[in-house]
Each structure stands twice: as structure tokens, then as C-alpha cells.
Design a protein that fits this description.
By secondary structure, this protein is of the alpha/beta class. It contains nine helices and 14 strands. The protein has helices at about 5-15, 30-40, 70-80, 85-95, 165-180, 215-220, 235-245, 260-270, 275-285; strands spanning about 45-50, 55-60, 60-65, 95-105, 105-115, 120-125, 150-155, 180-185, 200-205, 225-230, 250-255, 290, 295, 305-309. It has a six-stranded antiparallel β-sheet. Strands 9-8-10-11-7-12 form a six-stranded parallel β-sheet, sandwiched between helices. Helix 6 packs parallel to helix 7 (about 235-245).
Length: about 300
């Protein structure tokens, strides 16, 4: 199938900064086929890189699903139509973008489109169709206590792929099935979809429902939340508002790409100007409700990985 016309239209809109309507099924047919194969084989990730065939990760191992190698045009033709309007704009501006994607009857996926050696590449992760309970993650029983905190800041630290988002979603689920609370999540993109059980849950997606994390977080504070979930604390302004929210009576849950408790605190403090770092450390000391370090099994067959709380 010749995708050159569709590709040219999308690239033109991308360069002009215009949003596009959702692509029809024919525009995403090749990507849908790869992702359907990924799910059918119980894989976790689809990798698209130039000069290599499309590969999926199954039980930690990469497996080719087509014999022929891809070029940049193949990757862009397959992935660009699946991106949200916000992600298309972000890819134009920063050359990196994340977007959620859904195939009816197959599942939901997180797309990361980026560039390597000046060429487009993509890593696409299959998202679980349901939220795991804490007991299913084989975490220490004391972790469930974090879901019962009335207020304070809970940070989940760990390297990429260690299960931060999975653990965070399990904590939300624990609150949802046990307590009647108003939960607002802020994510980029939304990874786990939560249904209302005892709690009322609002899920805000950056780019679709709000322009950025600080704006969404400020708005959440005016929405009478009991629990605020920040998918990832990426910038000083988000960190500042999250800490202030925890100090003023909200339970705030979030994640950071760090390796241990000490580096989590240092990462936050170091994000601020030198003259503000001491006061931020003091505010963190007042707001932090949990800080714990332990080992637990990872979600995949990669062995045990360290998570920090």
C-alpha cells in the first residue's frame, strides 16, 4: 500500500503546527498488525528502528516479526497517524513525543516516537487491560499502608522499567476499592484506566485535557481532591506545587527516575536554584509521608529490581 500521500500530509501538518483529524483505519493498518501480533504473543514492547525488522520483546527477549528491515519512511508512515495532535506538535518541537493509542478489541499502548542518528524510531509498550492489585505484585504487605495515608507526599523511585507506574496504579486501585475519595490523576499519557468503585476518579491527560503538568496540578487543587496523582515529577514547578499540596492536607502520589531514597530527595532539591535548596529540603521533610527501600519482583522475567519508597 502506498502511504506516501498520507505521510506527506501528516508531515506538512506537523511542520505547520496544525492538528489533524484522527487517521482512518487504513493509515494505521500496518502498525495495528504489528501490535496485534505483540498482544497475541504476550509481548511487552514493539521496537521500530531503521535498518532492522520490527521486533517485539517477549519474556525479555527480542524476536523479529517480519523478515524485511524498515526504513525511516516505513516507521513514520506507520506511527505518525497514530499520534495524538499534542504528540505530533511535541515531536515537531522537541523530536521526542509520547502518546497513548488504542486498538478496539486488542488493547491500549504507549507510543514513544523519537530520533536516533537523525532518523525516526519508535518504542511502543503494551499497557495492561486491567489494574493489578498490590497483592499480585508481591510487594511487602506494609506498602498497602501508603494507600491509607490521609495526607502527605509519597514518592516512588526507580529506573525505567522497574514498575513505578504499575505500583502507582496499584496504590490508586487500593484506595479506590477501600475508600470513598476523590482522586485526580495527571499523566502524560494516561497508562492505566481506572473505573470508579468506591472512589470517584478523574484522569487528566497532558496535551488532551491540560497543556502541561503545572497547569493541570494547579487546576486539580481547585477541584476538591482528596488524592492527587502526578504521573511523573519532571520540573521544579510541578515539584513545588506537589510539595505544597501535600503540606496543605492532600495525599500526593508521584514517581521519579531515581535509584534510592537519598537520590530522590537530592534530585528534587537539585532541580531548584541554590538559594532555594535548603528551604525545599525542609518542605520535603514536612511533606514526605513515606520513605522506604526494599526489593521486590519486577513485572517481567528480567529478575528482581530495586524499588524505593
Amino acid at each position: 500500500m502506498d502511504n506516501s500521500g498520507e505521510l506527506n500530509r501528516l508531515v506538512r501538518e506537523l511542520n505547520e503546527g496544525h492538528s489533524s483529524e484522527p487517521a482512518d483505519a487504513s493509515a494505521t493498518a500496518r502498525l495495528d498488525q504489528w501490535l496485534t501480533t505483540l498482544v497475541a504473543r504476550n509481548g511487552s514492547d514493539l521496537l521500530l528502528v531503521e535498518n532492522a525488522p520490527p521486533c517485539i520483546r517477549v519474556q525479555g527477549e527480542l524476536r523479529k516479526i517480519e523478515p524485511n528491515s524498515l526504513d525511516e519512511a516505513d516507521i513514520e508512515a506507520a506511527v505518525l497517524p497514530a499520534l495524538s495532535r499534542h504528540a505530533l506538535r511535541l515531536f515537531r518541537e522537541t523530536l521526542i513525543a509520547d502518546s497513548s493509542y488504542r486498538i478496539a478489541g486488542v488493547g491500549r499502548f504507549r507510543i514513544n516516537l523519537h530520533r536516533e542518528r537523525g532518523r525516526a524510531a519508535a518504542a511502543i509498550r503494551a499497557l495492561p487491560s486491567r489494574v493489578a492489585a498490590l497483592q499480585e505484585l508481591h510487594l511487602p504487605a506494609t506498602v498497602a499502608n501508603l494507600a491509607h495515608l490521609p495526607r502527605g507526599l509519597v514518592l516512588i523511585g526507580g529506573p525505567a522499567g522497574s514498575g513505578k507506574s504499575t505500583t502507582l496504579s496499584a496504590l490508586i486501585h487500593e484506595i479506590n476499592v477501600r475508600e470513598a475519595r476523590h482522586i485526580v490523576t495527571i499523566e502524560d499519557p494516561i497508562e492505566y484506566e481506572h473505573s470508579n468503585v468506591r472512589s470517584v476518579i478523574e484522569q487528566v491527560e497532558i496535551g488532551t485535557d491540560a497543556p502541561d503538568f503545572p497547569t493541570a496540578l494547579r487546576a486539580a487543587l481547585r477541584q476538591a481532591p482528596d488524592v492527587i496523582v502526578v504521573g511523573e515529577m519532571r520540573d521544579p514547578e510541578t515539584m513545588r506545587i506537589a510539595v505544597a499540596a501535600a503540606e496543605t492536607g492532600h495525599l500526593v502520589l508521584s514517581t521519579l527516575h531515581t535509584t534510592d531514597v537519598a537520590s530522590t530527595v537530592a534530585r528534587i532539591a537539585d532541580s531548584f536554584p541554590v538559594e532555594r535548596q535548603n528551604s525545599i529540603r525542609q518542605e520535603l521533610a514536612m511533606a514526605l509521608a513515606a520513605s522506604r527501600k526494599f526489593f521486590c519482583p519486577a513485572r517481567t522475567a528480567d529478575g528482581c529490581r530495586q524499588r524505593n519508597y
